[in-house]
TrEMBL record, chain A:
UniProt protein name: Cytochrome c
Keywords assigned: Signal
Domain of life: Bacteria
Organism ancestry: Bacteria, Pseudomonadati, Pseudomonadota, Gammaproteobacteria, Thiotrichales
Organism: Sulfurivirga caldicuralii
MF term (GO), any: electron transfer activity
InterPro entries (UniProt xref): Cyt_c-like_dom_sf (IPR036909)
From TrEMBL, chain B:
Species of the source: Sulfurivirga caldicuralii
Keywords of this entry: Metal-binding, Molybdenum, Oxidoreductase
GO MF terms held by the record: heme binding; molybdenum ion binding; molybdopterin cofactor binding; sulfite oxidase activity
Swiss-Prot/TrEMBL cofactor(s): Mo-molybdopterin
Region (Disordered): 1-20
Residue ranges of domain Moybdenum cofactor oxidoreductase dimerisation in the record: 317-429
Pfam families attached to this UniProt entry: Mo-co_dimer, Oxidored_molyb
UniProt name for this protein: Sulfur dehydrogenase subunit SoxC
Domain Oxidoreductase molybdopterin-binding: residue ranges: 132-294
Gene Ontology biological process terms, A to Z: sulfur compound metabolic process
SUPFAM superfamilies registered for this protein in UniProt: E set domains, Oxidoreductase molybdopterin-binding domain
PROSITE patterns: TAT (PS51318)
Amino acid sequence: MFSTKKSLIAAAVVASMAAGSALAMSSNDKGGDTAAAAGKIEGKWAANYREIIKENGGKYLDREVMEKILGSDVNSLRAKLDPNNPYSFEVDDSIDGGPHGNAQCKVPKAFVEVWDSAEKNEKADYIANKFGKPIAESALKIWEINVDGDGNGWPNVSEEEAVTVEKGGNIYVQFCGMCHGEFGEGAKGYLPLAVDEDLVTSDFRDPAPMKTIGNYWPYATTIFDYSRRAMPFWSPNSPAIGDKGYLGITAYLIQANGIPLDDEDTTLDDSDKATAQVIMAANKYMKNQGNFFCDHRPVTHNKRCMKDCPDYLVGDGAGNIHHYRQARRLPDGTPQYNVNQRLHEAPPGVGHAGF
Amino acid sequence: MTDNRVEEKVAVQSEESRSQSRRAFLKGSAAVAGGVLFTKAASADYDPKKAVAPYAGEKEITEPLQDGPWRKRLGFGVRRYPYGVPSPYEKDVQRRTLEWLTPDSMASITMTPIQSLHGIITPNGLHFERFHGGAADIDPKTHRLVIHGLVERPLIFTVDDLKRFPSISRIHFIECPANGAMEWKGVQLNSVQWTHGMMSCVEYTGVRLSDLLKEAGIKLDKARWIIPEGADASGMSRSIPLEIAMDDCFVAYAQNGEALRREQGYPIRLVVPGCEANMWVKYLRRIKVTDVPLQHREETSKYTELMPDGTAQRFSWYMEPNSVITYPSPDYRMQGPGKYYVRGLAWSGRGKVAHVDVSFDGGKNWHEAHFTSPVLDKAWTRFEIEWDWDGSEAFLMSRVTDETGYVQPPMPQMRAVEGTNNVYHRTAMVTWRVHAWDSKNGGLIENVQY
């Protein structure tokens, strides 16, 4: 399941990169001989990337060096999503946590400085200074609050002990509703948790989409881990809620977001028990899980231009330096300079709600 | 923060900057009039008459200078301030926040007044703050750090234990990935403090993380991630890949020569050079070594970048090379045509800054600036370039190239690829528009965006 989605994303990324690539490619490839000059490209990329990077003074993000390694499609990033590509942050699916999709990412192999330094520090012999004290894992049972994407770390709450989803909803309303809304719609400027907005906007000036559990979060385990770890805001990991209660809150939010538990689109009933098993079932059906990919930046690979730079690098991206946008003006036509003029105004809604 | 204080600050600041610029202008314009350019003078032999030639024709001050009151009475004695504070005349150089960014002050951010700083070190009191659950007030005697998980021997350390280890001191920038977030969809704020203030640069002292992990016998064959966690109300966590953990991370107990401030994680914090500031977990109490990432809220719901097609980038670690002109910048105002020393900051999360180029014409032509500070790994680097402003409209931009060969892109290019719903990592260039001297708002410096 996960692999399939990932290849779809790869295609989507290529599409989204097209504009940037076209721009960057148009004038930077005048020479057109960079890929040929490397002469070592086997398949999609040069296997001897380390030597190429070293020969070029370690400049692994220099456009010419990248072209020598990746070929002339350096901007397409298509190859970057192949885990074997030296510039890929992606990790092969076989070590990617398996079918539940607990995705892993890595530092690209082409970032040779990082790998060399880590390897050196790993290999150096070490004898302990004996400055610490041994501690048993069992002594950490209060501190150990991680529940990861694989479901490692669930508290022991049996089916019998577990609360119902309805009870979880009551706990949510009591402890969370005043800031996040009774149905997860948000309140008082705090984040909504269950608003199903489209993640794509039609105009780049539109407010950024609200990212909530249903439309954005890739893992259901995160709901439990985070609410127990850090919520309620004024009293995190509250004994008044307890592990059972946090499981209940998590199940209620899964229900409120309409997250299915199986291929038949079964959703939680009020009378269902809020157990770790239920949350792990939902964990496989998080709507947006397949739409994440490992950070692939940097996304531009410009050459350092000094004189009469090409239009795509100048002003508005078409060579016009007088085509710019500015902040709202004051009545007298001057720019709004200080904060005073902005305080107590409505938030401008420019993509950082709940930031 | 009240309106009055802000208003006062702006008034004082611009007054200050005006007189600063005026001095530069007087010197500069006279120099041009006298036909002596700084660069030319430097290559010829020194001639005192030639040196002062630009002052020729300037009216001489003849009124006798009076003593100030501080010349006529004793100043204050030692230990009036057992812990020193800045002159009251500097009271307006402050961290500031934008109230509309967040609903409360415990999950919020303040920004460093970069326009008022010099050099590459941020004073501890002006270091930006980013809290996810308020600043904890921890007694260091009770604080512990545990290292466990995929290790041979889980260990617990006191802060004093950590100070016994071999120490290192490094100067690094620390930057919130949301730095510049408010400028994705267009320009709206006219100050470097607002456009670039979610970062600081200080000297940290601490213990190498690779030493601590090996002290506990990290199982390198199985370990792939470390999960640091804070002792504060947010229990802040991120998953950090082993390569980064073993590269150059360290656990810091000191900042600019003194203990960390509470706002920055007293008594200890993780330092992850070049990476997103949220990975530098404050109030560090636990490091779990694992083979899978946590998928914490701050690496899934937050600190992931929404792309224009609805997909999202995750596990974003490194901060891209970036730069900004801090003088002149929108907090200042040009005082007339003449000579200016344009200066600013450049930094890269992947290593040293290699070049900074400055354009005065919106990116058409570029001139290489020189560095006026040490050039350090993953640290602010101060650049400067001489500019003879002829009084016409100008579009100032700075562009960094780092030692990996990455060249900072212009905003339209970044927008074309990343869209504007990203929130984080808006690291493209910014543009300061200098209004023509003979125009209605002559000399204004305005943040504009292409």
